[in-house]
Amino acid sequence: METHSSSSSSSFSTLQSYLKALAQTPRRLARRAPSVSSSYEELSRVKARSGSDMQRTLRWFDLVGLGIGGMVGAGVFVTTGRASRLYAGPAIVVSYAIAGLCALLSAFCYTEFAVHMPVAGGAFSYLRITFGEFAAFLTGANLITEYVMSNAAVSRGLTSYMGAAMGISTTKWRFILPLLPNGFNEIDLVAPAIVLILTLVICYSTRESSVVNMILTTLHILFIAFLILMGLWKGDWNNFTHPGNPQHPSGFFPYGASGVFNGAAMVYLSYIGYDAVSTMAEEVRDPVKDIPIGVSGSVIIVTILYCLMAASMSMLLPYDMIDVEAPFSAAFSGRSELVARVIGVGASFGILTSLLVAMLGQARYMCVIGRSNVVPAWFARVHPKTSTPVNASAFLGIFTAAIALFTDLNILLNLVSIGTLFVFYMVSNAVIYRRYVMVGTTKPWPTLSFLCLFSLTSTIFTLVWHFTPPGKPKPFLLGACVVIAISILQVFHCMVPQARTPAFWGVPFMPWLPSISIFLNVFLLGSLDGPSYVRFGFFSALAVLVYVLYSVHASFDAEIDGSMGQKNVEIVEESKQSEEEEDPSQKV
């Protein structure tokens, strides 16, 4: 056993102490990386490290508004045209319905955890109580990185939409610094100003942030309703089945079932954003009632809006005449200048709400990561007057604004969030693992074997779908993968009993629905491009380096000092009674 001083920062107190800590890294990794927390710890001792509590001021309608605001951004204005023109045709409506079902399944998994453990950490906390500290840190670090980069890019994209709506070129407020390299030399003063204003809003009050989001979201929904009605009024029903060029495939399904599913994989990215709602669980008055309605309700409403928008666009133009980059603006450009201008205004509202919700989510992720001591505890502090994580909000807001000032990330044209899809995949696995495994009572290997085999089968299906040329072997291979996956799932369902039953709300049809979510997320991950994986690999390697050089030592110091609560081996007794202990903590 290692000796340790009483100071929580002893690994970093002197250079000699740090070098000694580095020499003990393998032992500390073996101790801390797989260590799991418990729901009771997360709801009590870990939560108390923030000092003041976050106020429980949000209701189900606030969560619905935040969910809609987080999802309906600029993505639908970009991905709809591309998916319809290249993959699904008029059946883009069906693609959105399928993607909405996928999002709803993932939302169920998030909801079970959020009701069971209403804390601000979202996926980070869910994975920390299931797969341990290292898995949680790796996914949390990727999430925050993508939040910051995406928010910086979205803020720059917002200035472009605002300029288009007002008829002003972005060159009026952007200027070039020739001393900087290309891609970093176009200075945008408006984008960081918007980010800093939103940072002040989310620092001031979560309730007021929700009100601002509700107003902007209402205006955005009115704009979408206007867009849908104009499409239905000026559109032609024949465009659902007749292409502009008779030589192109006709019918409602011009590219068949494969086109519909490929289109669903592309438009699914328009649903990313509902996960930020789970980070607000600590500020919800009645988590048991409000979270299921808020998360699932927002996904259902957005699915309906997306399907109607896709139908409106398909009626305005034949699928082979839709503009890939700006489908709605191009569809109305020759019909009404007023409508085209309104589209720019409406898109600006959508981007602004998605930016606001994302900034709320990233601050709460960072706050809870700070509570776990894998980053400085300064980030965990909740201000006693505003009841918001001011330190995390301000730090990430300033960092985002600095990037938005000079970096042209150009993510709006490629709204790929591989880190978020990876977290969806991990949470779907975690909800199955937690239902079937209880530390000290059941063996984890049957469940882990099932999850690995099912993921492997899903990966093989995805590779066959994307890389096997059309022909007779392809349907046979795909069918074989489906049969094997269903067989693995059925054997697991029949032979492995559930170790615990949710006290309040749980994913129905366990383990079928989470397994379908795992399969769909693997399939969607397989549809992403190579640069996305390069970026994910780079930031994952960077996160591992930070964990090895800093986080594991800070976490180890905190454990020795007693601030980490129960050690991994001591959770055996507590896990048997965790369900009963959590009941009173959620009745608020």
TrEMBL record:
The keyword Cell wall biogenesis/degradation does not apply. Keywords: Membrane, Transmembrane, Transmembrane helix. It is found in: Membrane. Its main location: membrane. The chain crosses the membrane at residues 60-80, 86-111, 123-144, 187-204, 211-233, 253-274, 295-318, 338-361, 388-406, 412-433, 445-464, 476-496, 503-526, 532-550. GO terms for molecular function: amino acid transmembrane transporter activity. It is a multi-pass membrane protein. GO terms for cellular component: plasma membrane. It comes from the Eukaryota. Residues 505-555 form the Cationic amino acid transporter C-terminal domain. Belongs to the amino acid-polyamine-organocation (APC) superfamily. Cationic amino acid transporter (CAT) (TC 2.A.3.3) family. This is Cationic amino acid transporter C-terminal domain-containing protein. It comes from Gossypium darwinii.
